[in-house]
Fold this sequence. Notes:
globular; 5 helices; Glutaredoxin; alpha+beta; eight-stranded mixed sheet
Amino acid sequence: xxxRPWVYVLALIVIIALIAxxxxxxxxxxxxxxxxxxxxxLVDQDGDRFTLDNVKGNVWLADFIFTTCSGPCPIMTERMGxxxxxxxxxxxxxxxxxxxxxxxxxxxxxxxxAQRFDADVGSWSFVTGKYxxxxxxxxxxxxxxxxxxxxxHSTRFALVDHEGNLRGxxxxxxxxxxEILTRDxxxxxxDIP
Length: 193
């Protein structure tokens, strides 16, 4: 009778261990589809039209920044640059930074900002457009940010698959999620037919 509580504790530990072993590993799980990015028509850092077609067929990572931000935006841009650098050998991967201050962030300003952060604009676009267009895209498409004032933007990266489906959010300021993000990007890349 004296050892009976230990038997229960041992049995509980064995049950918990068995449950943990039987759970599928997160690496093999499919990322959820959070939503679909709607069609949009904006302008990139070169003044060229930028639409969903520019990234369709590619996995892409998006963020929302503005060039005069002295808070999280430079950190986010540096982190995006790290991801781009680490995965530079993947052909079907694009990066898109949307400005949340389109009244100031013209294509010329965005181009200088991209140069300041040594962004490879071959696969990384910095885009602007009308305030209302960007506001609608952030709220309806990416489901992030402040509905009333887009300059109060999210500090998360949004991961989008090759079909334009939103698949995940990741911290744009914390390095801890870097490995998870790159693993999930690789997983989506492997899903491209």
